Amino acid sequence: xxxxxxxxxxxxxxxLYAATGWWGLSLSPISGFATLVWPPxxxxxxxxxxxxxxxxxxxxxxxxFINFLIGAPLWVALIIATGNTLEMVVGAYMLRTVFDFNxxxxxxxxxxxxxxxxxxxxxxxxxxxxxALVLGGMIAEGQILFTxxxxxxxxxxxSFILGxxxxxxxxxxxxxxxxxxxxxxxxxxxxxxxANFAALMQLVPIFNYLPITYFFVPYLWLAIRExxxxxxxxxxxxxxxxxxxTIAQIGLFAGQPLLENMFLSQMLLxxxxxxxxxxxxxxxxxxVTNALLQRNISELERALRRVRSANKAKNDFIAILAHELRNxxxxxxxxxxxxxxxxxxxxxxxxxxxxxASSAQTxxxxxxxxxxxxxxxxxxxxxxxxxxxLRQIIQTSVASVEGLMRDRKHTLTIIxxxxxxxxxxxxxxxxxxxxxxxNNAGKYTENGGRIMLLSTRTKKEAVIKISDTGIGIAxxxxxxxxxxxxxxxxxxxxxxxxxxGLSLSYRLLKLHGGTIEVASKGEGTGSTxxxxxxxxxxEQLSVALPAGKELGARKKPTxxxxxxxxxxxxxxxxxxxxxxxxxxxxxxQTAGDGRAGVQKILLxxxxxxxxxxxxxxxxxxxxxxSLRRQGFTGMLIALSGYGQDEDKQKAYAAGFEHHxxxxxxxxxxxxxLLRAKSAAEEVAEPLMKPAV
Length: 692
Prior knowledge:
The protein has helices spanning 2-25, 40-51, 56-69, 74-98, 108-120, 122-135, 144-171, 179-201, 212-225, 228-248, 258-295, 297-340, 347-377, 390-400, 402-407, 427-443, 490-495, 501-511, 571-583, 594-604, 620-629, 645-654, 666-673, 679-684, and strands at residues 386-389, 411-415, 422-425, 450-457, 461-468, 515-519, 528-534, 563-567, 587-591, 608-612, 635-640, 658-661. It is of the alpha/beta class. It has 5 domains: 1-174; 175-295, no CATH class; 301-377, Helix Hairpins; 387-540, 2-Layer Sandwich (Heat Shock Protein 90); 563-684, Response regulator (Rossmann fold, 3-Layer(aba) Sandwich), CATH 3.40.50.2300. The chain has a 5-stranded mixed β-sheet, covered by helices on one side. Strands 9-8-10-11-12 form a 5-stranded parallel β-sheet, sandwiched between helices. A two-stranded antiparallel sheet has the order 1-3.
């Protein structure tokens, strides 16, 4: 009897797999075998999860049957079926045994783990299937990536949308609701269906720029009030509407080619399902936690610790992200500085080097902006204010973007104020703001455009206006342009970046008591950014600008040769920094770990020691403390990918005089080394004002 039952289940699953697979492949498959809509993965995942891995033959024969039926040679179909089967077996195994997964999705970790499995396992089928098609000569080389991507997307969403629905509803099919709860549930789903029809008919044109807006309210309602059960059903309903709209060539993405329409629809569905399933899981987890908190005070304490831990984990993650990205960037930047010293460099090499240097600087700026946004958000940001003439900051900012302007063949016109613009600001941060705005103007203006910077003053404020003839900003985007991760148009999205530069500029100016505004008549008409910063009046100044003094940077003197010890476990970073400093005439010795570095420093007694913080045996802080205890009086410079304020404070407390954030530029290092021979001057300087 058990054998018949098992055979019947195999036949049933085979039939469902084959039927839904045949339907999925009828929706304009890519290369004939990869489709963006692939329900069989959801059916197979649920079957193997509930009925056991012994159901794998149904998946294997279903995949073999479909692929053979649509024209694949038998051996190609066998390879594809192997990949599809392995994908489902691995996915079900991970859900059943690897982690204590609960398909009720009442814990955030369950939801994140399920998303991870649905994202990871389709890589197997997509890779094996695409490889089989290549071996069989069934797709051209130029179609490989496109085919693999469609295969992966279709399998991922099939597992996530249909699989998530089946897992949640079959694991606990019965549920009890009060009369009022049934009314509320009906109202929420009615609103969802109405939202689908509104999207289909495009009733609110402005929502077409951000289609998720149509579904936001009903999805959020269901996520908060009804949880994962309702969200999985809602996603299945929306998927039906979107597939219908794609086939009928109507709705949100009407007018697009069929494949592009289907891709956009599937991406919208995936975003909706992911975001709101996570929200639903978070809300359900919170409800369960709150119920426990009412009965047990110790649960409250544990919950609070989890919140603190999550917040710390976020900050740690950002710091680690910056550190891990800065480490490989450091030898690149240093190597480029070494190459720049070659006086026999030909024009082609110079152009390539400058392009690489510009890209490296862009990456560094993105990392800095990301960290700055994080620090401002959690109110851990400190300004290093001083009284300066704003015209000087403008001049250094313009110098920073000259390369971009030259490469894009822009005409940059500077109209400086004839009067001094004394302000009390953090010069580095105001320069950061100006460079951000000028860079945007340069990037989003077609080659050969015009950019103008005008500085003037009112009675109380210094005013800077930066205008360009670029792509402009649509009227509906203007109110949101200073929000994080916002872009004014698709052209900005193609230009790259994180979309946080303007938001960061807005927040930095707000910290200074200043403002930034933008004006644009629409796309293709250019933009004008107006920056206002409070002026310092004459009676507030402790020093005056000497008459006739020219603004501008003076050439920095080069430090006399020094004995320097470098300690870093990153061989590439160590070798490139050593080579760079040797070109400046310094005597360099190196060590690859903390203990060896301490011994070398105590033996050689160098003028300067540059110590990486993240050493493998003892960290840089321990190295500094050990050297100071043993009487080392030379200059200690910390070098680290961690650049937050608390990291710098920790370095100073350990005995470092200076802290450099990777990738350190030669000019940063030189400005510190200039002081190494003047011990009296070094002692006289405040410890908390290092050059970074």
